[in-house]
Specification:
This protein is an all-alpha fold. It contains 10 helices and no strands. The radius of gyration is 22 Å and the shape is elongated.
Length: about 290
């Protein structure tokens, strides 16, 4: 068991799984609260279809990468890692902006589906809400599995454990308890995913260097293999989790550091709340 790869998969499965679990919990809770509990099976159907589709996409991507020959394998791996890092980065900021309104938006969508009489629209609503998280998770896990080399199975096991924990958190949310500070949870797991995404970015560039696609600043920036090698011990753990290498190229090091500084600063900045609506002035005349 590669502990670093396991931890990387665990964090990804936990973070992305919680987002999907909360969506399902909100939909189920609202249906029950409004006396439409008989339609919950539609939500489960849509969510199940989204999970199955996401799993299929992940399997196809992983098998495709493994079946390619050099240098196409490295190129495809690099592209997969870049896409995974880009999608996760976009979703982190999307969730950051939408966190305060996502519950109301979902409930309004449920009302529209019920009012229109299209009960099967609930299944489609659940599918579209969950598939976004599922595809993102599949891309990210495939990218992590590719970068983990021999730790691909550990990434998968970690992701399954993280998803199981996410289901438990979703159930707690559904039951209406307030034991979990979701704001802090998403904030700190988001920070962890930023470091993982930075590792995928640098690893993707390394793959492109190996096949000659990137030829600028490819010299080794430093070599600390004697102090903290990425081939064993703590170094191997950090490599699987954050893409650490004891012999980084200049361009991979610059890309990694730039991504961390810029994205982390943007992600941790305070969220601007929308201004409260201004009440219209009274039209009644003012008495002297």
């Amino acid at each position: 068991m590669n502990l670093g790869a396991f931890s990387s998969g665990l964090l990804t499965g936990l973070r992305e799984g919680v987002e999907a679990a909360l969506i399902v919990a909100i939909l189920l809770g609202y249906l029950v609260k409004t006396g439409n509990g008989r339609h919950v099976s539609r939500i489960w159907l849509g969510a199940g279809a989204a999970i199955a589709t996401s799993l299929l996409v992940g399997i196809v991507l992983f098998q495709t990468v493994g079946g390619l020959q050099e240098p196409y394998e490295q190129i495809f791996e690099g592209i997969t890692m870049l896409v995974a890092a880009s999608v996760v980065t976009w979703m982190l900021f999307w969730m950051r902006r939408q966190a305060m309104s996502v519950k109301g938006d979902l409930q309004a969508a449920v009302d529209r589906a019920l009012t229109a009489g299209g009960i099967w629209g609930l299944a489609l609503l659940a599918f579209t809400a969950v598939i976004r998280e599922g595809i993102e998770t599949s891309l990210f896990l495939v990218g992590q599995a590719d970068s983990a080399d021999e730790g691909a199975s550990s990434v998968l096991v970690g992701a399954l454990v993280g998803l199981a924990m996410a289901v438990a958190i979703g159930y707690v949310f559904y039951r209406g308890t307030r034991r979990i500070n979701l704001g802090s949870f998403f904030r700190w797991t988001g920070v962890g995913l930023i470091f993982i995404a930075a590792g995928l970015l640098s690893h993707a560039i390394h793959e492109f260097i190996e096949v000659g696609v990137v030829t600028v600043a490819t010299q080794t920036a430093f070599d600390i293999s004697g102090t903290l090698s990425h081939e064993d011990g703590i170094g191997m753990f950090l490599r699987a989790l954050f893409g650490y290498t004891s012999t980084p190229e200049v361009i991979t090091l610059v890309a990694w550091a730039t991504y961390i500084v810029v994205v982390l600063a943007l992600f941790l900045r305070p969220v601007r709340r929308p201004p409260a609506p201004v009440k219209a002035a009274s039209s009644q005349p003012v008495r002297p």
